[in-house]
Amino acid sequence: MGPSLALRIDLASAPRVNPPIPLDLADDAVAQDVLDLQRAAYEVEAALIGSDQIPALTETLHALRTAGEDWLGLSDEVGLIGAVSWRELDDGTIDIHRLVVAPRAFRRGVATALLDGIDATFPDRAMVVSTGSANEPALSLYRRRGFVVVRERDVIPGLSITELERRGAGRAVVE
Fold this sequence. Notes:
Helix content is about 35%, strand content about 25%. The protein has helices at about 5-15, 30-50, 60-65, 110-120, 135-145, and strands spanning about 20, 70-75, 80-90, 95-100, 125-130, 150-155, 160-165.
């Protein structure tokens, strides 16, 4: 059996994913689920970028709840598999702060579905996002959705962040 057939079988047998819904971090269980998901997702990013200096890895529940971000989440029969948070800037731009996917749900379209949810909520709004410069899967996802790199900067020695933006265009998918 070739790898592409195995992948199709795995995807076909994957648990059903529900549509994105708003998450209320005032709910203890929801907040804890988001924190656990975030840590698992950022551990993978830390390995990709070669640095465990990602603040979200050590964030407390209180800090997560008081960060002033709005959230959408996706779940399957097992639980929360993805979440995205954002803030609306004074000029109306949507600043995507976090996009996290459970490692068990990688390559199932979770990040795409969450970004689709933000696009549906804020059609034709400018958006900005940043990610570790060595996180090629995230950079690839954002580029496919019409984001362009605006700058790269070192945040600490050995850790570079790439900032991207998409100006007032709806969802753009480049194959």
